[in-house]
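Box 3.1 — From sequence to structure: Transposase
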Amino acid sequence: SDRWGNPREKLLQGEEWQAQRVPVCRALGHPTDGHKGVQQLAVQLDETWKTVASRFEGNAEVHICHDGKHPSLTISSLEKLEEPTSLHRLNSRVRLLLPPVDLTELLLEIDARTGFTREFTHVSESGARAQDLHISLCAVLMAEACNIGLEPLIKHNIPALTRHRLSWVKQNYLRAETLVSANARLVDFQSTLELAGRWGGGEVASADGMRFVTPVKTVNSGPNRK
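Predicted structure (token representation):
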């Protein structure tokens, strides 16, 4: 179990860890030398608890409660800050720049910019391209990604979205190798965007997990299971 099991069993071991050690440490901002990392944490812990201890006596917002079986640390809630008018104006401008769009329209626009659906080839007839195949592919990808099945996307009056067409596309075009190829085209296109370059080198994606820096660090902190 997560609570009582050995956490080391879920870690990379041996050659597999050595192969991933440098990029993982770089992505997380940790030194590759474990002893150096522990020393840095020890110094940080020592400096932090001394700083907290020096401010504890004069801080009226923090106190120790002795109501229960064990003493507990209580921190008063922060007062609400009123939002300035400039923030409301900024929110309005951002909303105008990011109008609500349908997810299917967004996927079709990305395909128009990148042409990633051209990476999906027929399982036996690699050169065959049906009319409006990109629409069928985007619909099937949407159904798979959202785990909603093909039914909500079927439109009998649109040839590219009939039940027969979508089922045929799913069976003949969606394969591991075509998905990898389409993803590679998207990644290559993203690397040309100036904004993406400002966000980093692409070594860590949002799907790799989200790490939040909190105002108060504690040795008793843990992952948020939610």
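Summary of the box: Strands lie at 62-65, 72-75.
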